[in-house]
């Protein structure tokens, strides 16, 4: 069953939308879509196919001035506001019923300054947009593992990617933001300007306004890197995961890796004999020279007899797109996560048992190697609260048939419940499928609460993880 709220009546929605448009129109230069307009229904669809909603109005601003006008009007009319960035969100927080969606996808401009090692990205940009710009100069910002991921959502929630152990989280490279707060004012926030607000935006979620531009610090990587991606049969999973754990204990910060457990897809680039078989895969990127990385990652290619080895020296932009096809628009998604205190033999056995019990072959059980640069930032330096765990468990349930919704959700919850005894009790904000208390992810709830009261006392931006 889709996650759906009861929408308002068509007549009420039409009236509310007309009133909002009348108030906003003189100051808004973007596009407006109301119910019944061509393209409205398509514009309501989100990446996660389980999320259905009926906003009264969708706004597509072109400038920060447009965003400020929309926020002021929503505040004046006390209209609920949801903000949609450029990418995807498993919890579907980019929409609402009976309210207004500010859709930033047209604000996706990226401007790179390689001399200063800085890049500015609009609030609607994706990591693919950023990578295509910065990799021309062999530079990058730590982004996600999927190029269609939005810069805004990933950064505001922290941001795990292939460079997390070398250069930290996405939010750790954030230099400044331009943001429209709930009073409709445009502010800049950095370590110098509005530093308390900047602290909250570094991993504390989207509770404080609409970020229209991000400025990041760039790091040297690419244009080619060594990328390891090796699929082993699940029958060898126990030894593969133990050996990977040993590799993680001794590798340098140049390496960021993860273990994935799932089912091999059919078709290219996988050999026919591997299609449909359960696997344990090891993925890793080396952030230094490709030739050095090739030697360092070679042990990950020798943990057993592979079903398939896709490892190669690869353009960084292609590495960032390697998993894009696994997360198409409209598929049904329900993910959960837990930070792990360790990954001992008992935890390995349980991960393999959970892999065997998945109700959908599209689902994966993943274990992310953490540590490195992300742990060298003080826990209270940003709102991202949990930096010390050595591993992160990600249970990514993905399926197609709506009739299987509850089965997949129940299995996901049960899987995390079984793994809880190995965990810190905290989870990763960007992998939460429903709204949760911000304290669930380890942030300072009291400090965030005080800042929320200061910048958004009426809770205009309410479609977020709760403070």
Automatic annotation (TrEMBL):
Belongs to the oxygen-dependent FAD-linked oxidoreductase family. This is 6-hydroxy-D-nicotine oxidase. The keyword Flavoprotein applies. It comes from Nitratireductor thuwali. It holds the Pfam family FAD_binding_4. Its cofactor is FAD. Residues 51-221 form the FAD-binding PCMH-type domain. One of its GO terms (molecular function) is (R)-6-hydroxynicotine oxidase activity. The lineage of its organism: Bacteria, Pseudomonadati, Pseudomonadota, Alphaproteobacteria, Hyphomicrobiales. SUPFAM superfamilies: FAD-binding/transporter-associated domain-like. Signal peptide: none annotated. Its EC number is 1.5.3.6. Keywords: FAD, Flavoprotein, Oxidoreductase. InterPro entries: FAD-bd_PCMH, FAD-bd_PCMH-like_sf, FAD-bd_PCMH_sub1, FAD-bd_PCMH_sub2, FAD-linked_Oxidoreductase, Oxid_FAD_bind_N, Oxy_OxRdtase_FAD_BS.
